[in-house]
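pasting for the record
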Amino acid sequence: MPEIKTIGIVTSGNDAPGMNSAIRAVTRAAIYNGLRVKAIYRGYKGLIDGDIVEFKTQNVSNIVQQGGTILKSSASRDFLSAEGRQKAFENIQKEEIDALVVIGGDGTIHGARIFAQEYDTPCIAIPATIDNNLCGTDTTIGYDTALNTIMQCVDKIRDTATSHERLFFVEVMGDDAGFLALNGAIAAGCEEAIVPSVGIDDSQLNTFIQNGFRKTKNSSIVLVAANDKVGGAMHYAEVVKNQYPDLDVRISILGHLQRGGRPSAHDRIIASRMGAASIQALLKGLRNVMVGIDNDAIVYVPFSRAIKENRVLDHRLFDILHDISI
């Protein structure tokens, strides 16, 4: 494999707290090891448009604590086409970039996998998504921060739910994985969590209302993972309102505030570790792998495994949630 002298860094897809920590680590680890760094702005779109500048150490000063991504991000339909990827490769050649470090979720890694296969370009991925749904890693950058944001929001909602004896359905992000909803419910002391992979039918809702909420509590909070097919919190709240018109049912959709904010210490640490590990991977001759953490150790996961399927929830956590929410 040709010697790697210059790397490109790109953040793509949805932003996640801790991306800047990863950018900082990649940049400085690369420079420490004698590599040049080219920053690609606005995701794969920037790669196609040639929105690329060289980064020095000072370009990543004072960003470890910032949410979002200083490189910006955007969805790029053009990168889905062969023509778009051809333009991206031409810009890589023009900038003399020998390898890419891509930071993002499953869509980002999927794009890198195709690009690497078509143009024989070494690519290393760093998992950054609040959904925590990538295989081969115990956690992804941004998940811990988003989980803490949810917990803090639900804590505040609990105050008004208790004061007014209300039943709240709180909708959170997390795609089809449901990690934010389930672990957020445990962390915030919620009474129930509804996730797409498990779901809950009308009879289970009735059981929850009759045997849980009405018998032992005057207020209750249910976390619901957003889901286009079912309808999320609004759907379940409507079902309960129709069957129990006397209940004071409310809805709160947390939305994009879950993506914002300063990254937690945990996310800053794993982003720094993964960023440094991405450079070590390239120096070792690895390619087309995602950096992961397994039992607190850095691992390198083939793209095909990382995006093959969503991580599976540990259903035993539902038992814990139900046992301690009586």
